[in-house]
Design goal:
By secondary structure, the protein is an all-alpha fold. Helix content is about 45%, strand content about 0%.
Length: about 100
């Protein structure tokens, strides 16, 4: 394991805020849409949006799914979010079906 800190996306917080505003959601409503209302709080969403805290991978996947964009849109500083959100990427289409 290296001693260097990992690189953090500089624009992540502003992209998360942009998503919430584009969808017209409060922080509490966003938590509900993310399915995280029992696991997180509006204060945590605020920390993500201000860049104080970085969301987990599962939370980032939730944001991408709610915004209907590829995850790369969130984590790559060189990619700009689409002007119209939600986008048209459908995560459900790519989820594996159980074999039961």
């Amino acid at each position: 394991m290296g001693t260097k800190p990992r690189q953090r996306p500089e624009k992540l917080g502003q992209k998360l805020l942009q998503i919430r505003h584009a969808l017209g959601l409060s922080q509490s409503e966003l938590l509900w849409r993310l399915g995280a209302e029992g696991f997180s709080s509006p204060a945590r969403i605020s920390e993500y949006e201000s860049g104080v805290r970085e969301p987990s991978l599962s939370m980032l996947l939730g944001y991408a799914s709610v915004a209907r964009v590829h995850l790369e849109y969130l984590i790559d500083d060189d990619i700009v979010l689409p002007e119209n959100l939600p986008g048209n990427f459908d995560y459900q289409r790519f989820k594996q079906k159980s074999r039961a």
